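Possible regression after last week's pipeline update?

I re-ran a chain I had predicted before the update to compare outputs. Posting the input and the new output here so someone can diff against the archived version. Not blocking, just want to make sure nothing changed silently.
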Amino acid sequence: MFNPIKMLIFGGRVLRLALPFVLFLLVLSVFSEWFTYAGDADLLWLDPEFWLQVVVDVVPGIILGLLVFWLAARFVRSLYNLDNWRAGLGFLLRSRSGMWGFSPWVKVHKGMIDKEDSFLKRSGGPGNLVVYNDSAVVLELKGRLERIVGAGFQKLEAFETGYGVVDLRPKREVLTVEAMTAEGIRIDWDVEIQYQIDDGGEELGEDTPYPLSKDKVLQAATTRWVMVDGSSVLDWEALLTRGLVTGELRNILARKRLNDLVGLGAGSAPQNARPARQAVQQELEANVRQAALGLGAKVLDIRLDKFRVKDEVTQQWIENWRTRWRRWSEEGLAESHAAQIRLYETTKAEAQASLIAYIGHTVEDLATRDRVVPRVLLARLFSALDRAAFRTSSRIFFPAEAFKALETMKQLMSGDSDGAAGDG
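New output (post-update):
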């Protein structure tokens, strides 16, 4: 982005840097030509040949100065491993005269630098950073950690470089841990972990969806382990996943027997496998959460998936156990379903028996009070009960006691009907 004001300021600083050197060459050339001038001294300042000779004497000095800058640019290029000598010359001009625009700049997004081989990692400022709200950058100056910057446009001072970039977003990783049980059986267990940089109590905002705690970011950026052979460097994320989770799970499984993990320990049933795994997960989560605080991170969730046994014989044994467990679960489900049906039918039969008993008591009560019950109503009642009892689509069950009560009531009604006809 071209900025005329910055360009004028930059040009003025370059002139302020180069003008003393040019004036020194000019004065030195004038004195040298004045001492060697053979003409009239009074006409010295008006002689064009004199000034032409002065300019000629200045040119080698300017060329020498440019050569010095070129050698310095090549030295800077070799020192910081820049692309070419022009990049080294640009660094020299920026460090001495400031920025003439927004360039050079680099973008930091999703916890990564847009260009890993940019000036931020090589020569450092002056320059500009465009940091998104999901990242934080730790800057280094003169061999010490200078400051921590978050979202926004950040200006780098001269020789200020990036020490580390921290991703503020929640992360998820699934890894396979190779461990060994107490019997010496090798198993692979899949672990899913969700983690994030600790917010340090900072609150969320409209422009800050990921809270930035400078203390926690600094703690995470400075937590690094170097392998003994120097082959790799582990940052805070690798330490949390490959270091803490893997190490803690291996330590826990080293105290567990495979029978306990699959629920076939002494005096245990197959359904005890799940509580045993939950105990392993709870212990793992508690230990990792506590250790993650020392890395400036927090654990959101840890889940243990299925584990696999590497030994073929043991794997076959596991498959046999799984078959037994499925058969046991299917038998249990079948028994519970049958018990549910039996309980439902028994309850329904009791309710229907009580209904028939209530009808009988009502009819008996009416008879004792010398009240005449309409026979058509009773006939309709018996007809409805018969249809409900023998119709398959109604799915209504009447016990034997209910049928006996109905038959008795029918006989009573039939006797009353015959008696009434005889009287007539």
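Follow-up from reviewer: compared with the archived run. The chain has a mean pLDDT of 76. Marking as no regression found.
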